[in-house]
Structure formats: structure tokens, C-alpha cells
Amino acid sequence: MSILIRQSTIILPDNETLDGDVYIRHGKIVAIAPSLNLADLSTDEPIEIIEAQGLTLMAGVIDPQVHFREPGLEHKEDLRTASHACAKGGVTSFLEMPNTRPLTITQAALDDKLSRAASKCVVNYGFFIGATGEVLPDLLNANPTCGIKIFMGSMHGALLVDQEEVLDRIFSQGDRLIAVHAEDQARIAQRRIEFADSKDPAKHSLIQDNQAALNATKLAVKLANKYHRRLHILHMSTGEEAEFLRDNKPAWVTAEVTPQHLLMNISAYAKIGSLAQMNPPLRSPRDQEILWQALLDGVIDFIATDHAPHTLEEKGLAHLPSPEAQPETSSADTVLLEPANVPSGMTGVETSLPLMLTEAMKGRCTVHQVSKWMSSNVAKGYKIANKGEIRVGWDADLVLVDLHNYKPVRNEELLTKCGWSSFAGWELTGWAVTTIVGGQVVYANGKVNPDVRGQALQFG
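The structure assignment produced for this chain is given below.
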């Protein structure tokens, strides 16, 4: 079925905006105009009309860093529940990480994920292949993949690659994009001993401190420069890294930031305990300000959620903290575990777009900037053709959002399997009203259409 979206405010490339109509046919954007007449649309197919007055039409979000837990960890998320959550959040494509069970380090494991996604994902999908201490042939040859993921720190087992000589060997071979989790594992291990006696969740940010992040980012950039290798720095979290990149960022390096690192800081531990624990950790208000400025200035290129769900039990919680609880009373909601025994990670795909659009409505940025950071710059960075912008001939991956009404994040309304958000209780605007993937309505009227299927993304 063709789709005619009528009289929305359309976020076009080059900071242009149009109040008008968009016509979609066979999964593509066919026409964009101030007004389109049904009689002029040459088709014998039925046309679904979406009346969109008062709504804003944006390119669908491409989330370039998620952990959807399938295979092997489906008790806390799977590709079906995660892709439904994406659709609800206006995320039309995702790039997923290799730390599943088994690890995505071979063509066979990649093929298995692609097959699973084809059978159950309602949005588009792509997968990283993981680097190990041994440079396996599939690391260089497996396809289709968005790139190589290297955990320089905050990892154990085969995916931890923290020795410079091994990293150098990976950077020296092949030419596909390398994305790094940049933390210095040796420094983390040392500081874990220093802070061993504390059970305060906030010590996580002291153990995995700013220096650990800066050390690893500097090393990754050094190796990228040595080989002119395409490098992407995942979830940058510190002001020091942003200031370093401002003066040391060649054309082959990009970086991203999460809404968590922009909008939360170390004060969150007192309110929500272990739900504030992620890797790299939350930082200071000063770090937040520097990250924001780097994003606005283009030092940081795009936004990712690092959606990484865990169950409440894994997070050491007897029940969810109340959004209304005061910091001095919220600790009663937490079963205090040693932070090293609490898995790090937050959910994000359902809240990232409204979080950023709420900031735009506050005047911190513009809606066009949000669209660049969450859609077009991601598509350019990963060389995903015909996505990330609203153009004639491009894929119809779109989201209609309401920028006029606010509502809180409610845990009970989330579609992610783990059922919680660190942003519960936050009043946000810009919630998705309708999400379209490949010219099919996948989310509308508060419900996901489970029959829609996304496509495997192609890169380069």
C-alpha cells in the first residue's frame, strides 16, 4: 500500500523545513511538495492517508550502538522485543554489538544473527563483528557487517583486547571501520583494588575514571593515524576526550555520545542507585557541558543509546525506585551489591529521541541538529545508502513526532523486556506517533504492527 502523509512539518536536509505532503510508494519517498493531490498520484494501489497536521516528520533514527542480547541472553531482551521498542521510539534501524552468546566473531555467528533478525525484527538491522586477541580471518572478511568492535576495556574473556601490540595488528590489517570502547583496562584493574572496600554505587565512576577513558582514546587515535584507519569512538563520556579530539581529530575519525552522558551525571547514583551504572560511567556536570559543546561544534558526530538491558535482580534491586523518591530515601530501594558484581548498562531506544527533542524544545539545540546527530550523520559515518534524510528516491524510514505535548517516561509502558528506564518520571516531548519502516507503518496508535519486517542494512 502507498502512503500519503498530509501536512506535517517536514525536517528536510540542509536545515530546510517544509509544511507539506510526502508520498511513499514501494518503500521509497516518491514526492515531497506543499500539497499533493490524490488524482495526480499515478497508482492503481490503495493509498493510506495519514493526516499529520501539527506533527513533525523526521528521518527515522539510526541507533548505531545497541546490545539486544540474542542469542544467549534472551531472559533480558531479544531481537523481537528490542525491535518493537525501537519502533515505539522512532528508531527505524539499529547496529548491534557482538557480546552475545556465542560471541559474534565468525561468519557463522553473524549469519545466525542475520537469520534471527530477518524472522522477527520489525525495523532494519546490522551487526558488528567482534575482535579478539587473535586476528581471525572472519574479522576481515565477514559480511555484511557495519564494522569491527574492539573492547579496549570494561570487558573480560575473548573480547577484551587491551594490549597495544594486538591492537596494532588489528588496525594494520584490512580497511573496514573499527569502533572502540575506549577504556584503559590496566588502570581500571588498579583502581578496582584501591576502591575495593566501598559498596557505594558512585565508586563505579571513580574506578573507571576520566583518565582511563582518555588513555584509551589517545591510543586508538594514535593507531588510527598510524594506518590512516577509519576509527569510530563509541559513547565518549569525558570532557578530556572531547578536548583532546577537538585538537586531534583527523578526517578518518568520528565519535558519538549517549543521551545518558549528556543528561545525567554522578548525582544520579543517589537517586536511582545501580540503574545509573553503565560503561563508561556517568561523569561530572563539567563533563556534560564540554560534551554538549563538542556535539554542537561537530567534534562529536552522532548519538547512540548503548541500549544494554539487565533484569532488576541482576541490577541488585528488590523493586524499581519511585520516580518521586527523594535521594536521601531512595537507597532503601537498592539491595547494595558490590558495583563490580552489578552489570553495567541502561535501556535507551524508546527514550533517546524524545530526550533529545525535549532539549531542542528547551533551546539547547535545534530539531534539525537532532536529526543530523541521530539519523543523517550516522548513515554517512557507516556508509548506509539512501537512509537518514527525507529525500525523493530515498528509503521511507520515517517517524512522525508530537512536539507539543509532554508526558512522563513510565516503566509500565516500555516494550523493552527488562521493563525499566533510568529516565522514569522524566517529562518529555517528541514522542513517536507513527513510525514507518520501508514504507510500512510499523507503529501507530500506541501499537506495534508485528507483521512488518525490516531489512538487513548494507554498508559502503
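Interim note for the steering committee: Residues 409 and 423 are 7 Å apart (CA to CA). Residues 326-335 have pLDDT under 50 and may be disordered.
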